[in-house]
Amino acid sequence: MDIVLIAGLWLDGSAWDDVLPELETLGHRGIPVTLPGQGDGATSATYDDQVAAVLAAVDGADGSPLVVGHSAACTLAWVAADQRPDAVTGVALIGGFPSTEGEAYADFFEPVDGVMPFPGWEKFEGPDSDDMSDELKESLLARMLPVPVGVTRGVVHWTSERRHGVPLTLICPEFSPAEAQEWIDAGDVPELSAATALELADIDSGHWPMFTQPAALAALIDEASGR
């Protein structure tokens, strides 16, 4: 099966390099997406540009792909369910949740000169990064790409109620499935509260399992593809 892979903020398609061979071993073809403004040099990129890139990857895949989103890009993966409900096998979310209708996509940190740079590892101390070595953090820091404010401050809109029936897997890294279920039950994550085909999966990692647990992550993606 084709697997469309969308990395979160500050990362390009190479974030999946360690996961791709693991997926291939399991019989899948990974399609990593380099999002506009995150690796292509387009500093004027917008949220809508990133949406278009994801939909183009879905449309270009063989058959019905599974769409995988990481962190903030969980919203972009859920866009595929919203706008291509008949074209996708399902969606898997890693360490994040789809934005609520009318929210900004990812306006988390103050921009500098029109872009939102990576704020430094101190913002992600604790469960997010405890499984990462200093060497890995240093290596990733050199790869982090500032994200244009046209992306981060883009407003999210949902268009089709049919998205709620698309098979959805939430992979829980720095938080547990039990914690995620509490947030869902409390209505803190409206898009997941409304999902009718949701499963939760645990992974023993921090926020970036594609770097620290690529084989385990690929195995969970493979399970999601079988739903």
From TrEMBL:
Keywords: Hydrolase. It comes from the Bacteria. This is Alpha/beta hydrolase. It comes from Nocardioides hwasunensis. GO terms for molecular function: hydrolase activity. Residues 3-219 form the AB hydrolase-1 domain. Coiled coil: none annotated.
